[in-house]
Amino acid sequence: MTAVVLMMTLCVAGTEAKSHAKAHKSMTRPAATHGLAYGKTKEAMALADELAEQHKLPKIWVREQISKAQHLKGLPKMVLPPSVPTAKNWRAYRERFIEPRRIEAGSQFWQTYQTALTRAEQTYGVPSEMIVGIIGVETFYGQHMGNYRVLDALTTLTLNFPSAHPRATERQAFFKSELGHFLAQAHQQGDTNIKGSFAGAMGWPQFMPSSMAKFAVDFDGDGRIDLRNSPVDAIGSVANYFKAFGWQTGMPTHYPVSFDEARLDKPTLLAPDILPSFSVSNFTAKGAVLDEQAQKHSGPLALVELFNGDELPSYVAGTENFYVVTRYNWSSYYALAVIELGQEIKAARQR
Questions:
Q1: Residues 138, 178, 320, 344: which is the catalytic one?
Q2: Which strand (E) or helix (H) includes residue 290?
Q3: Are residues 13 and 78 located together in one domain of the fold?
Q4: Same structural domain for residues 174 and 308?
């Protein structure tokens, strides 16, 4: 997830981003400034030795990379939650992504890479509009991939993660793990100067290093995986990610939902959050009203609630495929923005 998406997810949607959480240049925080290199301090070298052993890398090489990593002074503040949380607002969030320039850029991207998108759909069963929606929300079709050296960002977030963060221990461990994956990939590729987001995400789809290791594919067939310079690799990798998390070909992501107030048991429907947990019969028995298509759905559903500031919330009935989209970013706001952007681009191409 990009920094734009990350900060909006935290501030607007009010949801902590997933371990996949990715970031490029923040819209709302000042840029991090470079300080001195970490050098061969005891702490830096202990980190280098631990990661070298864990990933079976040459100790001398890892020590050299960590010692040269720059401390990004402003970066720790950028990962802190806002001191005054902003009210969740789906309509405001949506407007950031479902807008004419992004739809136009997405239409051009689809036209340019139609062959690769069709092949990805045939290979992984993931619709083109979902792939186009992800890349559009993540990096505006390659326009915002981040300009932080990933080595600097991940080293800073490992050695100087802010203790004031409510999940400091967990998040610091996450970034240390990502640094290890990045060093393993950089050693293999012979390049430690790769640029990415302030949280260490890379390329058109903003994959964290662990996601690179698990899900990235060489979809253009050139013998290497390059998510920064190969949109075709990015297309295949996003589709592979969705498939790995259980995308079911042909299943809708969500359905419209309204309520029969006389029977409505909203607390029970919302209790599992966005995890699909109710059969159609149980869903409707608790006061949800579905259209004819949704009533034929064979899998579980979730009631997805999206707040709109001081106005009434919006609701959809999320399927297992909606839940898959949230595995890219643990936010229903993000998921619906991706889905609706892809749908708008598909509609624009058909006009």
A1: 138
A2: strand 288-290
A3: yes
A4: no
